[in-house]
UniProtKB/TrEMBL annotation:
It catalyses: meso-2,6-diaminopimelate + H(+) = L-lysine + CO2. This is Diaminopimelate decarboxylase. It comes from the Bacteria. The modification N6-(pyridoxal phosphate)lysine is found at residue 60. It comes from Dongia soli.
Length: 419
């Protein structure tokens, strides 16, 4: 938490007191540290320095323009999963030749726009998508540079909802059919098959599944080359997990060592698509206690943030640390409380029976590790306003996405004249 210190008894983001931002911005809001984003990105760059490896930041984790621009300025490429994300990447300053487009269901329009923009690579996930892309490319007089995304049938040992590399998952091409489809791709008009891509899941905390996937990729590349097919690139996806509660996760140095041992000898250009490990622990969700309610069997701390702001606890039973903005003292009593939001669902709960120092209405708390898959998954459920987003750099902070007004949200609806 070096970028989120308690100074003079108050939580800060870099040098800015959280309470000051809360006064100016109102709650709830996400707050990101530029220094943390930079450190996490540079950790990749330095761990992989000796390898010909390029980082394509996965925008799905956090696609706020200020966050993407921070990474663009550091030289990162972008991994996008939709046309919307491609526009975001381009607008934030990531050039087209540093954009990779992955995703299991790209439309013809999306493929066409990606080709017109001249992006670095399209990761193709099925034989039928390959045929569509070939047609679209031919009709535009373009050549699509692709990597074939393979599904290595490996259990990433992560939450089932974010595991992507087992044969029963919708992603990628079965590794057993990959050679045949790769060879077909090499003969298709409008297609230049440049390599293989693979992403086995998100929030991986154990290196073993990566090592297994890397070995399968290496075997495939070797057999493709034996068949006379060139393979220039290998995209290893993202997925490295972060510590949400001091748990052991993958050390980048160990990850890099596995890449060095298993992938580097292939002599391919290496591509990575990290998301969470760059922004996850660079962001907090700041929220205020609305009320503390004592039930018969439980005490509930009701926040002004809810599942519509941060859905991870509801969707994946995910753990997020929750800390008070005013530093508690060591002799404060600790009691177990449920920390919940105001939405009309029992699942709208950030923590169950969590040991906390005393909280009362008006207190500010920070939900930690909220920089990835937080704001991007927010909704207006219960006609709640999505949270604002703030970026901090040193002493400076700025709202980088304001909280919309109710009129802006309700005004998107219309009542038909024939009603
Ligand atoms: C194809 C692809 N690449 C990269 C990522 C980024 O993953 P993470 O945020 O776990 O690093 C994802 C999401 O899991 C993905 O689906
Ligand atoms: N939304 C998920 C991660 C999804 C990864 C998408 N490829 C999470 O919060 O953990």
């Amino acid at each position: 938490m070096t970028h989120f210190p308690y100074l003079n008894g108050q939580l800060h983001v870099e040098n800015v007191p959280v309470a000051r931002m809360a006064e100016e911005v109102g709650t709830p809001f996400y707050c990101y540290s530029t220094a943390a984003i930079t450190d996490h990105y540079q950790a990749y760059v330095s761990a992989l320095q000796d390898l010909d490896a390029k980082v394509y930041y996965s925008l799905k984790a956090n696609s706020n323009q200020a966050v993407v621009a921070t990474l663009a300025r550091l030289g990162a490429g972008g991994d996008v999963v939709s046309l919307g994300e491609m526009y975001r990447a381009l607008k934030a300053g990531i050039p087209a030749d540093k954009i990779v487009f992955a995703g299991v269901g790209k439309t013809r329009d999306e493929l066409a726009e990606a080709l017109k923009a001249g992006i670095h690579q399209i990761n193709v996930e099925s034989e039928s998508e390959l045929d569509t892309l070939s047609e679209v490319a031919k009709s535009l007089g373009k050549q699509a540079v692709i990597a074939l995304r393979i599904n290595p049938d490996i259990d990433a040992k992560t939450h089932a909802k974010i595991s992507t590399g087992k044969s029963e998952n919708k992603f990628g091409i079965d590794i057993d059919h990959a050679a045949q489809i790769y060879s077909r791709a090499a003969r298709l008009p409008g297609i230049r098959v440049a390599g293989i891509s693979c992403h086995i899941g998100s929030q991986l905390t154990d290196l073993t599944p990566y090592r297994a996937a890397f070995s399968r990729i290496a075997e495939l590349v070797t057999s493709l080359r034996r068949a006379g097919l060139p393979v220039e690139r290998v995209d290893l996806g993202g997925g490295i997990g972060i510590a949400y509660r001091n748990e052991q996760t993958i050390d980048l140095k160990d990850y890099a060592a596995a890449v060095r041992e298993i992938i580097a000898p292939l002599g391919c250009a290496i591509e990575l698509e990290p998301g969470r490990s760059i922004v996850g622990n660079a962001g907090l969700l700041i929220t205020r206690v609305i009320n503390v309610k004592s039930g018969v069997s439980r005490k509930f701390v009701i926040l002004d943030a809810a599942m519509n702001d941060l859905i991870r606890p509801t969707l994946y039973d995910a753990y997020h640390d929750i800390i008070p903005v005013m530093q508690p003292s060591n002799d404060d009593p600790v009691s177990r409380v449920d920390i919940v939001g105001p939405v009309c669902e029992t699942g709208d709960r950030f923590a169950e029976q969590r040991a906390m120092s005393p909280l009362q209405a008006g207190d500010l708390v920070a939900i930690c590790s909220a920089g990835a898959y937080g704001a991007v998954m927010a909704s207006t459920y219960n006609t709640r306003l999505p949270p604002a987003e703030v970026l901090v750099k040193g002493d400076a902070f700025q709202v980088v996405r304001p909280r919309p007004t109710y009129d802006a949200i309700i005004g998107q609806d219309s009542v038909p004249s024939w009603l």
